[in-house]
Amino acid sequence: MKINLRSVAVLAICILMSISPANAWNAVGHMAVAYAAWQQLTPATRKRAVALLKKNPYYKKVWKGLIPAGTSKDDQNLYIFMMAATWPDEIKANNSGYKNDSNTPPQTSEATRNTGYGDKYMHKYWHFIDTPFSTDGTPLPPIPSPNVETQIGVFRKTLASNAKDSLKSYDLSWIEHLVGDIHQPLHCTTRVTALPGQQNGDAGGNDVKLSGSAGELHAYWDNLLGNGSTSDFQKAVTAAKLLPSAPASASDADEADWVQEGLKLAQSSVYVDPIGPALGPYTGDATYQSNSLTVAQQQVALAGARLANLLNTNLK
Q1: Per-residue pLDDT at 1
Q2: 3-class SS string, the chain
Q3: What is the count of structural domains for the chain?
Q4: In whole angstroms, what is the distance from residue 210 CA to residue 285 CA?
Q5: Per-residue confidence at 211, pLDDT binned at 50, 70, 90?
Q6: Does the pLDDT value for residue 8 go beyond 70?
Q7: Domain range holding 118?
Q8: Residue 135's domain is classified under what CATH number?
């Protein structure tokens, strides 16, 4: 198979980098999803989206200052849309001013609230859904809720409603991010085994260790499109231009189907040789690295197309 040289460069970055705790595609991956979506948005949807995103407090605090002087208006709008996709991860920083909640949804009202930027919870549990599967017959635990699937549904309804623009801005920032998250296979599943501490799952691959420069399985997948932060939006443009065309399944607008796709991909493409049934450490060979990059690029392209369809249909 002939491999694009730029794809090889992206893969080399993934192999050489030190992987940090996972967020779900890192900033480069999320901005690549947004770039792909932007190309498929209608002019009216683009205009409406940017007007809403300028109400995000990070627009003046962070994003506006990252755009070089002399950038065209069209590119400014594109970059704002791309940067907004990183915001739900940015607020998880220690100095963000947001409350550091856990990955487990609390049984209190803040878990499901949708009140806009006055909500100062990080809502880490909105980024994924622990759909369990077992390779050894261990009983499967229940799926915690709320999660990425439930929240995409909530935010989609808000964007299609007559809610205030301030709330729609908050929900748009989240939905840009979560549509990316739900297309990372390890944000859709957790592997359950009888191993000590694994009866409730491996935290979406976070417990599976990789040797060498890679730290663990989940973070490896998060960083497949390249490593960087919100300021690296040009890296995301480069990565996005390498993406394949989205398949016909991009027309599927049901987030429940997206979760099931991610679960199947995790089983067929993530937890495969050389990733064994235990917690490692494992070393990914060239075949695994090449295949995982291909899957990641396909999923980011699919996420971009589905995000565009969602916004073109629902953003009022």
Answers
A1: 37
A2: CCCCHHHHHHHHHHHHCCCCCCCCCCHHHHHHHHHHHHCCCCHHHHHHHHHHHCCCHHHHHHHHHHCCCCCCHHHHHHHHHHHHCCHHHHCCCCCCCCECCCCCCCCCHHHCCCCCCCCCECCHHHHCCCEEEECCCCCCCCCCCCCHHHHHHHHHHHHCCCCCHHHHHHHHHHHHHHHHHCCCHHHCEEEECCCCCCCCCCCCCCCCEECCCCCEHHHHHHCCCCCCCHHHHHHHHHHHCCCCCCCHHHHCCCHHHHHHHHHHHHHHHHCCCCCCCCCCCECCCHHHHHHHHHHHHHHHHHHHHHHHHHHHHHCC
A3: 1
A4: 11
A5: confident
A6: no
A7: 5-314
A8: 1.10.575.10
pLDDT of amino acid 14: 37
For 205: left if phi > 0, alpha if psi spans -120 to 50, otherwise beta; the answer is left
Whole-prediction pTM value?
0.92
CB atoms inside a 10 Å sphere around CB 54: 15
Asked whether residue 3 carries a pLDDT value surpassing 70, the answer given is: no
